[in-house]
Specification:
Four copies of one chain form a homotetramer. The first copy, chain A, is built from nine helices and 15 strands.
């Protein structure tokens, strides 16, 4: 008798969904993609070719009716998340929902309330950085207080460029949201307030974005976080984090890989995009989720409460971007259910 | 209908065998450990607990008789390799054999001759570095001739310390053997001769080892390789490779990971042992092998010819260590079967 | 006939004065220390031993009366600067005044007004970073717009610890003052406003200092500067600067020097104090000043207007530290006299 | 009364001589160039313009007759060194002789014998690396045995390209000679034998040079040194040294300075030539020599014995290059005179 295999349905067969189908099929132990769900049948069919044996279904309702899965991975755009999660929770399915949980705190809160009716958390949210080896090393360094308490975090988040569809609010809701989640997780605290400072505007990139920006946020344990958010740096995808402690400093994110000396300079490889940098983290995230589902823990990573907190921070951050000043967040106690 | 799963028997339930059982079970897609084979039943049973559903068998013969596997992973000590491989070849099983293929070129050659009777290569040899991301980047850099032809390779291979059982010949056969295979693979050529130079002997470590040593070998394309082999460096496991090209230099292996500033210095993490450094490479190696077996290619990595070449280089290297001087290897054409 | 030698009087024979006497005597071409001026005769005599042939005098007035110098280096504490400068200006002496020019903008402004009566600037202010090779490389990178316009500067300024006499306001007036001057000089603009953000307070260091702090200031060309000011980091003296540009990033200050691998880590040398880091810059500063004096340019470096601007920024920074909020500076046009 | 100034005559007004004249005039304390000696009067006159007050003389004899100097700096090509040194020794002048002392060990030995007739060493040889901050740090690290005894040295010496006049023997006599001197000085031992290994030849550079080469030499304390000598690396001037110790490793020479991120890579500044890298070392060398001359020690750096040892190593190295094999050096005890 061989080990059990978790049957996963993937909702949403776009780029992100297809990548997840490929990872689940080729890299993850104990998983198989049993169904690909998308209203666009051609797209669903194409993605399903990556997973031999999977079926194509038009809707989540149809998939639930057909008992086509043991667990659900949601890879649709954000606006479709709430209704899909509500259906899956009703069917008591373990869920991995790509970030954001939802696009505003009110709907995220509704999901939290619905999940609190169940016996344990069922929802994991796709904040992939928590599965990156560098972030894990940094968190361990902080937890062990090897250099005393954490006092400050300096973060840099740079993309080479962004699509025309990228709007100013996405600086917060699509980009800094990763630092909101990661910094709170690293420091073991919630976000108390958010402020946005503008720098000189990059004139050779999209001027309407008025970036780069410097986002400042305080955590409930007084740690101050600053984030350079820069979506037109030109040279690559770069994420660095520097923790300032009572008795030292720790830092990650400098270039690694092959070091090349040519034509008057020494160069180091830079990642071209977040998929280069986070490829291993995506696999670790999916494997952790599959192992959790197989073990009946169901969740091993950021949960719906974390998703709700990120939605609160994004709402405050967007107000800070548009209105200026320091915007406070409602600070609520984390329910024991999500401890 | 789900995707097919390859049933793997692991021969040898020591440390290396157990690690492979755990990886195949927890990290590799499309594989399951169906049998653990070891004459030491208690050891076999303990290792088999890592793989739910696996059976324990005392001998490879018994496992073949029981049709207990689709593929065989050999993780016993080197002296047992030849007989196991011969049995498995007779049963036409795909094989992943931990390095060395065998401990001398004559027996390795016998294996090559036996395999040449089959329709295609069935044996992959466990030279894990070929699956390490840094080595793969370097090989691609060399192949693309981005900085012209490769001229020299400087290699460093350092272990923090070695067990009492480590004998001087193992400097070559257990340690430099990795550079023999990796350098020939990187440069796309065979080894022509080997020389060993002694440095001042490390007196605070095992003096009988008379190390560190500098091993020099030429390849058939005139590339000169030097290897610092140092098994008592004290501080960690460190493998670096620097390629000198006609128009530049490329290098990997400097410390990476969390950079810490404390108490008058800045430090970088160093791997403690080869399992830290090569953990991802082991997974990549096993996944590549499993995918090859499932696809009927059977082998995707170093093959028996490469194992035979490494055995020739080790024999020459040990003579160079013991007798001094430059020792030539018989240079033979790679058979088309192994192209 | 040999080249002329500039006779320098050093006012103030404390640690800083003695260091300058030693540098002028041992390292600087075309200079000799002709007089050491200090009311503490024993201290003056001790420092004068570093400069064979120098005389000891009790007051600047006495030194001027004795025609004991061609140029004056002021190394007394800040409160004594104004009166000394006024005397030296009246005597039309070239002056190198250690920072600060004076401790408040009103008195600095008085000095500017007095100097404007002369035919050309006579006062150079000791902002040594402008003579550091890294800062010079960065300024050149910015001026050449190699990566487009400068948008942001991230600065880190860390001391291992500070004396008991260090008061909270010195975080701004003694420490961040270096970044005020350097950032404005690098970016070619003046400071528009200053804000101070507190992080979690370092509890294993002096809690009354409530540091580290993050100082934010905008320049008149919209460049945003953030400075981590941290005087109890424990591990050494560290100054880093990262410029964010429209098409790239440039950075300096990472550890350099001997790289050592021992006991599970790789370490890089860290400077123990600012004299380690800035030793070459001090020599460059003095040599530049001496060459300027010999050439009748008199000043080659930051001038009294720069000193006045720094005093304005410090006043605003101390208010921001004590009162919170963003404090504006009066932005004035740089007089042509100081162009 | 001001401090005394050493009057230096510079023999040879080519590029190297002119550079030294400029340094002595602009950067060195306590020195003045009193005479420029060259049979090419126009060249001498042009160089003398860099040193106000200096006179131009056609020959060393004339300069000695005119009592035109307190010390002599020899910057002519190597073949002219012996006769100039003999004249200057007869006049009991302190000498700084650019490397090599002479071009063969027999003539170098004659100089040693002549100098042994004097009361103390008068000759310093221009091996500038001994005054470089990185080499000094490494030597201190070795001497303090911080990581135990030194066992091996890995050296890299790369030039971007060389002039058409560069001949194969210059790989040893002009280039590796620096490592001969520096390695023996770092390790505190003499050179016992030299061997040269060829790599694949760089075909896009000068093929007649048959380089890069790997030069191996053993020291009398059993330390093994390998040197990659590469005069067509294309990208810059790069000198690295890695010491392997009983309990660790220390290394210098990786790129430093401004770190730039642009267009898919991170780059670090590389020196363009040895004058970039060694500029500070040249100043330190000249200042040390001037201070030694002023103090009656006369020499503070590599002496004639070191020059003679380097000549012996070059002779052996050129034989090894031309004939192959390991060439022994006559190992002689360092006379107490040169201790």
């Amino acid at each position: 008798m061989s080990k059990p295999t978790v049957r996963v349905a993937v909702l949403g067969a776009g780029r992100m969904g297809a990548d997840h189908i490929e990872r689940l099929t080729r890299n993850i132990s104990g998983a198989e993609v049993s169904a690909v769900i998308d209203t666009d049948e051609a797209r669903a069919r194409s993605a399903a070719e990556l997973a031999p044996g999977s079926v194509v279904l038009p809707t989540l309702e149809a998939a639930i009716d057909a008992n086509a899965m043991d667990a659900l991975l949601i890879a649709t755009p954000g606006p479709a998340h709430e209704s899909a999660i509500m259906l899956a929770l009703a069917a008591k399915l373990p869920i991995l929902c790509e970030k954001p949980l939802t696009e505003d705190p009110v709907s995220s809160r509704r999901i939290v309330e619905a999940e609190l009716e169940l016996d344990r958390p069922h929802i994991q949210v796709g904040f992939t950085r928590r599965f990156d080896a560098d972030y894990i090393q940094m968190r361990r360094f902080i937890e062990r207080k090897r250099a005393g308490e954490l006092l400050m975090l300096h973060c840099v988040h740079r993309n080479p460029s962004v699509a025309e569809s990228y709007r100013p609010e996405m600086l917060i809701a699509d980009s800094v949201v990763h630092e909101f989640d990661a910094a709170a997780w690293l420091a073991g605290a919630a976000i108390r307030n958010v402020e946005v400072r503008h720098a000189r505007t990059n004139s050779v990139a999209r001027e309407d974005l008025r970036e780069p920006i410097l986002v400042l946020f305080e955590l409930t344990n007084d740690v101050l976080v600053d984030v350079e958010m820069n979506v037109n740096c030109g040279f690559g995808y770069q994420v660095t984090t520097e923790g300032v402690f009572e008795q030292g400093v720790a830092r990650f994110g400098d270039p690694a890989g092959l070091q090349v000396f040519e034509t008057q300079k020494a160069s180091f490889g830079i990642d071209e995009g977040h998929s280069d940098r986070l490829d291993d983290a995506f696999n670790a995230e999916l494997q952790a989720w599959m192992d959790a589902v197989a073990s009946e823990r169901l969740v091993d990573g950021p949960n719906a409460w974390d998703g709700y907190q990120a939605a609160l921070a994004c709402e405050a951050g967007i107000r800070a971007l548009n209105e200026g000043g320091r915007i406070d967040l409602p600070v609520e106690e984390r329910p024991a259910f999500y401890a």
